[in-house]
Amino acid sequence: xxxxxxxxxxxxxxxxxxxxxxxxxxxxxxxxxxxxxxxxxxxxxxxxxxxxxxxxxxxxxxxxxxxxxxxxxxxxxxxxxxxxxxxxxxxxxxxxxxxxxxxxxxxxxxxxxxxxxxxxxxxxxxxxxxxxxxxxxxxxxxxxxxxxxxxxxxxxxxxxxxxxxxxxxxxxxxxxxxxxxxxxxxxxxxxxxxxxxxxxx
Length: 201
Fold this sequence. Notes:
CATH architecture: 3-Layer(aba) Sandwich
Oligomer: single chain
Structural class: alpha+beta
Mean pLDDT: 82
Number of strands: 6
Helix content: 25-40%
Number of helices: 5
CATH topology: Kinesin
Strand content: 5-15%
């Protein structure tokens, strides 16, 4: 895990001092992650674009600028009504998640890319398992701690949340396997989300 908004140079030999922790209320926090105060949409977007330039990408046979790691941009929002003298403040949290590219390992030429793809595909599988488990009323345990991604998004998967998924596909025959795989993944994710909403009625 790395802070994409940090001014410190990234040292892959030492790793990162960033870690995920739960507080006494069960809220998820990322220790040693920088937090920046903004007062308008433009400032928030500037930080998003800055993080975009620093995230890990690499060229593969299928995508010249493929995301080779998951990235999460979190926006904390505080709002209160302008009507009346109410002091009530609503606290919201928005996660913008860019999942790493899901590509067939047999189509990757470099061995380093194959190992990387295996980690990516494994973490995506963990994400799907956690979403399915969180929507199953017969499950006593949801394995959020299987990966850093699912642990970080715990309250956004099993909490009081709304989810929108955008799947990027390429309708060419050469990419048919990846397109089908991505659409199946997205449809399963949204199906269990919708079932969970129905079950809550």
